[in-house]
Amino acid sequence: MADDDSLSARPGLPDALRALVEDLPRSAWSAHPRFHGLAEFWIEKHLGFRRLSGLLRTDLQGFLDGNSAPEVMANRVWHHGGMLIGGLHDHHRVEDHHYFPEMLRLEPRLERGFGLLDGDHHALDPWLEQLSAEANAVIGASSDRDEAARLLASLEAFEPFLLRHLEDEEDLIVPVILRHGMG
């Protein structure tokens, strides 16, 4: 994988990996006869991660702005943070061990793309570990504004990488699903 393909450097999928999404653009996905099922589920799952990240950010900012009690914020961090971090770990595990190998078999020309997504998962793991540790610190010391601010700063630094990964994964995966009728 080239250095410019790393999650921290790339502005989107490299042109060489955009062939399927150009044949099956996002604007046509929901009208495709194979969309309902796995493709729609995949998109919904990703929308859920985006929502959870936003909710966690809002929860933390609300506390820091004085609009939320510490115990309410800690409970929401436990709930939203746990769903986000645990959900991403589970989602990536299923992708890496089940879906990506099957999709690679169906579309061997996308080997570089699946390597890119696998690299993303490895790049996101340290972020998820850091967010988990910081969320646990917030939950354990819910009135500590510094811990909440630290978690919020980490979440805000993490979100661009998460969003880049989710969008690129959708652009690579959904066209494969639509083309081959997986699910």
SSE order: HHHHHH
Mind telling me the CATH class?
Mainly Alpha
Shape: elongated
What is the overall pLDDT average? 94
Radius of gyration: 18 Å
SS summary, helix count: 6
Give a quick precis of the structure.
By secondary structure, the protein is mainly α. The protein has helices at residues 19-23, 26-29, 35-64, 70-106, 111-140, 145-180.
Write the SSE topology.
Elements: H1 19-23, H2 26-29, H3 35-64, H4 70-106, H5 111-140, H6 145-180
Helix pairs in contact: 3-4, 3-6, 4-5, 5-6
Protein model, in words:
With 183 residues, the protein is an all-alpha fold. The protein has one domain: Four Helix Bundle (Hemerythrin (Met), subunit A). The chain is 78% helix and 0% strand. It has 6 helices and no strands. It has helices at 19-23, 26-29, 35-64, 70-106, 111-140, 145-180. Helix 3 packs antiparallel against helix 4 (70-106), helix 4 runs antiparallel to helix 5 (111-140) and helix 5 (111-140) packs antiparallel against helix 6. It is elongated, with a radius of gyration of 18 Å.
Task: List the main descriptive attributes of the protein structure presented here.
mainly alpha, Four Helix Bundle (Hemerythrin (Met), subunit A)
